[in-house]
Amino acid sequence: MSKKSDAYDDALEQLQILLVETQAWTIDEGRKTLIVFEGRDSAGKDGAIKRITEYASPRQTRVVALPKPTERETSQWYFQRYAPHLPAGGETVIFNRSWYNRAGVEPVMGFCTPAQHEQFLRDAPRFEQMLAENGVNIIKLWLDISKKEQAKRLEERVEDPLKRFKVSSLDSEAQSRWDAYSGARDRMLDETDHKAAPWMVVATDDKKTARLNIMRHILRTIGGPGARADKPDGDVVFAASKASGRLFR
Amino acid sequence: MSKKSDAYDDALEQLQILLVETQAWTIDEGRKTLIVFEGRDSAGKDGAIKRITEYASPRQTRVVALPKPTERETSQWYFQRYAPHLPAGGETVIFNRSWYNRAGVEPVMGFCTPAQHEQFLRDAPRFEQMLAENGVNIIKLWLDISKKEQAKRLEERVEDPLKRFKVSSLDSEAQSRWDAYSGARDRMLDETDHKAAPWMVVATDDKKTARLNIMRHILRTIGGPGARADKPDGDVVFAASKASGRLFR
Amino acid sequence: MSKKSDAYDDALEQLQILLVETQAWTIDEGRKTLIVFEGRDSAGKDGAIKRITEYASPRQTRVVALPKPTERETSQWYFQRYAPHLPAGGETVIFNRSWYNRAGVEPVMGFCTPAQHEQFLRDAPRFEQMLAENGVNIIKLWLDISKKEQAKRLEERVEDPLKRFKVSSLDSEAQSRWDAYSGARDRMLDETDHKAAPWMVVATDDKKTARLNIMRHILRTIGGPGARADKPDGDVVFAASKASGRLFR
Amino acid sequence: MSKKSDAYDDALEQLQILLVETQAWTIDEGRKTLIVFEGRDSAGKDGAIKRITEYASPRQTRVVALPKPTERETSQWYFQRYAPHLPAGGETVIFNRSWYNRAGVEPVMGFCTPAQHEQFLRDAPRFEQMLAENGVNIIKLWLDISKKEQAKRLEERVEDPLKRFKVSSLDSEAQSRWDAYSGARDRMLDETDHKAAPWMVVATDDKKTARLNIMRHILRTIGGPGARADKPDGDVVFAASKASGRLFR
Predict the structure, then answer these.
(1) Residue C107 Cα, gap to closest chain B Cα (Å)
(2) Mean pLDDT of chain C
(3) How far is D158 from chain C (nearest CA, A)?
(4) Would an 8 Å CB–CB cutoff place C114 in contact with chain D?
(5) Alpha-carbon distance B243 to B186, whole Å?
(6) What own/partner pairs with CB < 8 Å and gap ≥ 24 does A80-85 have?
(7) Neighbour-count burial of B26, counting CB atoms closer than 10 A to its CB (0-12 exposed, 13-18 middle, 19+ buried)
(8) Is residue C73 part of a domain?
(9) Per-residue pLDDT averaged across C114-121, rounded?
(10) E-only strand ranges, chain D
(11) Percent of chain D with pLDDT over 70
């Protein structure tokens, strides 16, 4: 194993130890933590979540990745199928994709109407505002990957027999509709970035660096023991409000 | 049976027939209907709901009367335990008591903090606004009973062996805390009456008249075939915004 | 109102009072009660259940009428979708149709394979045996109606605007496949009548008489205060094991 | 990294690739797979499950580790809270501890009565028999660890800040009640080993060897592409019926 890899392993372990300590604190304090992972296909959501939850408390942690809505769900209030999964006191819930489907894949692929897209962009901040006022600590992460790196990762997936279940029929659209996804992302970051639940952008072309910085950001946002974490690298994790010109196109 | 009773039975049946026709229309149209019944103990909620649902479609109708929240639920976002019960397309959901517990029994009995009470009064209209914009037709009814009539009904309950399961340990508080309940009701009507989900007040000292008028109001608000219903009697059903001086004290 | 009708109303009220007292006892004792209503369309299940639950404890009583299984449910263990509805301590659960669909409508209409039908006939007594040994008091009722009376009721339904939601696309099959349903019923009673959960047959051409006798049987089977109920009329309620020659054909 | 470790990594990866292929086959065929992991604290259940599920289909795989039953659940049919988690067609469900709590921790720690323990030993094979006849492929694994190795692992846990959430108040009992646990295990293996759902014992003092052999056993039992897996080492994985004298005491 290379030196660089050793350094990553050490840093990762230190951050995982701090996550354990910090979660123990949120449990004691009864804090509600909601972490939203969004980003294009292969941007590194699964890998980051895996490291964050590796040593987490099984009883107080849930990773939520909802399947496609049923027809009945489609006719309901949009947030209804997400509501049962929100954290209770002391719980950490990680959404691997979330209600923001309606600001990304759904409008890009035509799975919702433009009017539903607009309605969602108005609703999301209001909904999150209410949760925040009810004590939910919301951490929203946009994992940003370049077109070239995505192409590489999607190709590797197809060839890797271990990644068979990661390959999806939508993968090919990720590249061919790249610009439409960029446009949807820009609108999402514009309209749904607000004080109670701001967006943080993470550059993920370098996976390992991204993971460490995501963990630092989460730790510092949760606070308590987590406040001891190093600041994330400002070139890797930055506020959406300051993302101008820094997002992959 | 008296003539008066016959006339009630006839009017009730005609309204029930119209309800069936109107529900068939909401099912066809995929409309979402949410009816909220609130009111003091013994104000007539159960009896009115029974007549409304007697011939309703079993598959598209749900009466929701949630038990006391568990400790875990108490730590969640306040509306979380209600969300799974909201209507899907074509469904009619009737809440027999609702989130408005937090504007009535909870602050009066000390089951929530004053801060939670205030937070709720801010949240309820925002939450309902979002539902309304997502196509939920919300009908909120406050069943208003006089102190004397309540005393009479609560006494009768205790003596009636068929009403054993209606008697609650909170019944005695209903009378002794009458004024506190009046104050909570006034604030609720003031703060949570809004265009997207207005409150209607129903005088229920005369049960049968109240039931007929409730049905008329519901039918006309849903529309479609229901628009053919007679106007409710303005002395029995009236907008909260015009309730000044007409509420029982 | 006629004298006969008055007598029925009085008897019904007395039995309802005794049901309330008996349920209070099962709640105190933590007993689990499961009542299964089966029978052809229009045999009187809804009406009987309505009278039994009219004054029951809302918190400890559930009427379960499951919709058609989803595709996913169809692939599961057959009893899986019923299991969540079984009674906890102190609860009374009434199944309005039940797992016995697989011994009636499903084989008759071709909704299951003959092998699934056979498997079910073997499984049902084993499943119920296990429940019984785990303290569930199972009361199984087959409501038996004559072909002529069914024809009359189904016709009345179609013409009654209040019964619109009772009319089903399967109604016409009830008469045209009468004999197949009789055969399925006979096999069901033969194979799934066992000591831990015996079948009782109820003749329901006379609705009111049937209701009173059903209530008497339930009360006496539950016991406690219910033991005071009169014996059901042996011409109306009788054990499946003694049904030979008495079932409608 | 040592050679031995490299060999393990290679073997593991080959088995994981075969698991992916085999699961794809069970999905296509609509097969239901239920894998039960049982064993004393620190016997290696979590680690084995982690390797098995690492590349599994997220939509068709569920790891179920139920929390302590609520009071209401305690009053229900014992298997009721497990039933909703059973696999549908094409699904693989892994129980990390299971209903066999009632044959281990519950009787040893006095969380159930001796009568409930006996009832369970009678019920488990009947319940599993029914599932098996309904197409559920049940694989039951008892992970067997020596007293000395357990002592070592429990100690290491306490000192490892990453394992904070693995440490339980019951850990100390694992050693002090070692013999009672052995006795409960023996009875469990005796009474609940049956053709439709036999027990396999896995010696887990050597974790890595155990994991590889568990995967081989699972693959060969599922069949399809999995039939290509090497036979598990008969010293590591063996039928409970042939365990006499080979279980750790």
Answers:
(1) 23
(2) 96
(3) 38
(4) no
(5) 10
(6) A80/B83, A80/B84, A80/B86, A83/B77, A83/B79, A83/B80, A83/B83, A83/B84, A84/B80, A84/B83, A84/B84
(7) buried
(8) no
(9) 98
(10) 32-39, 61-64, 92-96, 136-144, 199-203, 237-239
(11) 99
Residue closest to B99 by CA, chosen among B72, B71, B127: B127
Closest CA to C239 of C171, C100, C140: C140
Exposed, middle or buried, A176 (CB in 10 Å: 0-12/13-18/19+)? exposed
Q: How far is C2 from chain D (nearest CA, A)?
A: 46
Q: Does C133 touch chain D (CB under 8 A)?
A: yes
Which residue of B lies nearest to A132 if distances are taken between CA atoms?
B77
Q: Considering the domain boundaries, does residue B248 fall inside one?
A: no
- The shortest CB-CB distance from C165 to any of B17, B55, B161 is to B55
Query: What predicted TM-score, i.e. pTM, was given to this entire model?
Result: 0.95
| Domain assignment of residue A196, yes or no | yes
In this prediction, residue D154 has a pLDDT band, given cuts at 50, 70 and 90, of: very high
- Asked if D17 lies within 8 A of A161 by C-beta distance, the reply is yes
Q: Tell me if chain D has a CB within 8 Å of the CB of A68.
A: no
Q: Is the pLDDT of residue C144 over 80?
A: yes
- Encode C199-221: b = buried (16+ Cβ within 10 Å), e = exposed: bbbbbbbebbbbbbbbbbbbbbb
Chain B nearest C-alpha distance from A63 (Å): 17
- Interface probe for C, chosen from B66, B157, B162 (most Cβ of C below 10 Å), is B162
> What confidence category does residue C111 fall into, taking pLDDT thresholds of 50, 70 and 90?
very high
CB C9 within 8 A of CB C171: no
Query: How many A/B residue pairs have CB atoms within 8 Å?
Result: 71
The identity of residue A117, as a single letter, is H
C-alpha–C-alpha distance, residues D188 and D173, integer Å: 19
Residues of B in contact with C55 (CB under 8 A): 162-165
pLDDT in single tens digits along all 249 residues of chain A:
467 789 999 999 999 999 999 999 999 999 999 999 999 999 999 999 999 999 999 999 999 999 999 999 999 999 999 999 999 999 999 999 999 999 999 999 999 999 999 999 999 999 999 999 999 999 999 999 999 999 999 999 999 999 999 998 888 899 999 999 999 999 999 999 999 999 999 999 999 999 999 999 999 999 999 999 999 999 999 999 999 899 998
- pLDDT category, B5, cuts 50, 70, 90? confident
For β-strands A61-64 and A92-96, DSSP reports them as parallel
Burial class of residue C1, CB neighbours in 10 A (0-12, 13-18, 19+):
exposed
Residue C161 contacts B where some CB pair is shorter than 8 Å:
yes
Alpha helix segments (H runs only) across C43-160: 45-53, 71-74, 105-109, 114-133, 147-159
Contacts of residue C143, Cβ cutoff 8 Å, sequence gap at least 6: C37, C38, C39, C40, C43, C44, C45, C48, C202, C204, C210
Task: Select from B32, B196, B35 the least CA-distant residue to B100.
Answer: B35
User: What ipTM was predicted for this assembly?
Assistant: 0.93
For chain B, say whether A183 makes contact (Cβ under 8 Å).
Answer: no
**Which among A16, A56, A65 has the least Cβ separation from residue D58?**
A65
Q: Which of B16, B59, B165 sits opposite C162 (nearest CB)?
A: B16
Note whether residue B116 is domain-resident. Answer: yes
In chain D, the residue whose alpha carbon lies closest to the alpha carbon of A17 is: D162
- Domain containing C39 equals 3-67+78-242
Both structure tokens of D127: 């319940």
Chain A residue at shortest CA distance from D166: A57
CATH of the domain at B52: 3.40.50.300
Interface touch C75/D126, C-beta < 8 Å: no
Query: Residue A84 corresponds to which tokens in the numbers above?
Result: 């049962």
Which of C29, C130, C137, C138 to mutate to test binding with chain D, by most D CBs within 10 Å of its CB? C130
Domain count, chain D: 1
